[in-house]
Design a protein that fits this description.
heterodimer, A: about 170 residues, mainly alpha, 8 helices, B: mainly alpha, elongated
Chain lengths: ~170, ~160
């Protein structure tokens, strides 16, 4: 089955229709998705700002990260669940939406950036833990992260607009 | 009584320009959301600490000193973009209960954040019972959640 075929099948399931047509549940799920920005992206941004050396300078990275990790994970889980439900409610239109596709690519890049940071830079955190201005690799990862999340939020917001939708898709 | 003011806001050149553009409203809205993430992070770090459920190895007063500047930066972007969005649909806002809920939560949220919450964070470290810190974190989180949720709801209303 193609991805589009899968989305078309998904769209006909009764729970998808129920969610799409619900008066309250869909807006509530969407609000949860938006407000979780504060938790997930908010915490990630504060970590990035620490890596840039512009806040929490006296806090060692190896102390800051473990304290924030549970909240980051919780925020990520909420994002994935609420975002998955939003997709589930409107699969075909979302799948065909250019901003959704851009967002998916950017999310993968953000994941890759975080993975590289942990493999290459954070692994040697002992060497720069107390630096008020962490090394170049850390600062680069922080800038890339900030830029990607800004684009992801923008692309996500744009999914709601249907300027580029194929005719007949709603 | 306020309606003429809202009508005037909507008739301003700025309001009209945003309303007549396909791109401006969503783009300004995106900046509004970027600032939301920043404010969220800055507020949460200290509130989690005040509640005693996160950042526990950090000293409250120090954490407050580190996060307040970023909170202020986030808020200035938020208020600027918020005013622009408001001007483009002021009359809709006038009739939106979500808008009024947001405004009536925003005023105490701002006031609380820059008076009591700041004072409690500064006074931490002995003089204050932990229960007051917890209460402060709870009030702050609750107020900002109402502001955020009702803000999102403006888009669903009307």
């Amino acid at each position: 089955m193609s991805l589009l075929g899968f989305c078309q099948w998904l769209e006909k399931t009764s729970w998808s229709i129920a969610l799409h047509e619900s008066l309250w549940v869909y807006p509530i799920v969407e609000s949860v998705h938006v407000l979780t920005l504060c938790l997930f992206v908010g915490v990630a941004v504060m970590l990035d700002l620490r890596l840039l050396g512009v806040t929490l300078r006296r806090v060692p990275m190896s102390q800051l990260f473990p304290q924030l990790q549970p909240w980051l994970v919780a925020g990520f889980a909420l994002m994935v669940v609420s975002g998955g439900l939003l997709f589930y409610a409107i699969p075909v239109r979302t799948y065909l939406n250019i901003f959704f596709r851009i967002k998916v690519v950017l999310l993968l890049l953000a994941g890759l950036n975080a993975w590289i940071f942990h493999r290459r830079v954070y692994r040697r955190v002992a060497e720069w833990d107390l630096d008020e201005r962490p090394p170049k690799g850390a600062r680069r990862a922080a800038w890339v992260s900030l830029a990607l999340w800004a684009c992801i939020i923008t692309a996500g917001r744009m999914i709601a607009y249907n300027w580029f939708d194929a005719p007949g898709v709603h | 009584m306020l309606l003429p003011f809202f009508e005037w806001c909507e008739s301003t050149a700025v309001g009209e320009a945003i309303r007549n553009s396909l791109w401006l409203f969503p783009v300004i809205e995106s900046f509004h959301l970027l600032a939301l993430a920043l404010i969220g992070g800055a507020v949460l770090l200290l509130d989690l600490r005040l509640l005693g459920i996160g950042m526990r190895r950090q000293e409250v007063a120090r954490l407050a000193r580190d996060t307040y500047p970023w909170l202020a930066r986030g808020l200035s972007v938020m208020i600027l973009t918020g005013i622009l969005l408001f001007c483009s649909e002021a009359i809709k806002c006038y009739y939106s209960s979500a808008f009024w809920t947001k405004m009536f939560a925003l005023a105490p949220a701002l006031l609380f954040t820059f008076t009591i919450r700041r004072a409690v964070a500064r006074a931490s470290g002995g003089r204050l019972l932990p229960v007051w810190q917890k209460l402060t974190g709870l009030v702050s989180l609750s107020l900002w959640t109402i502001v955020g949720a009702s803000g999102r709801w403006i888009g669903f209303s009307g």
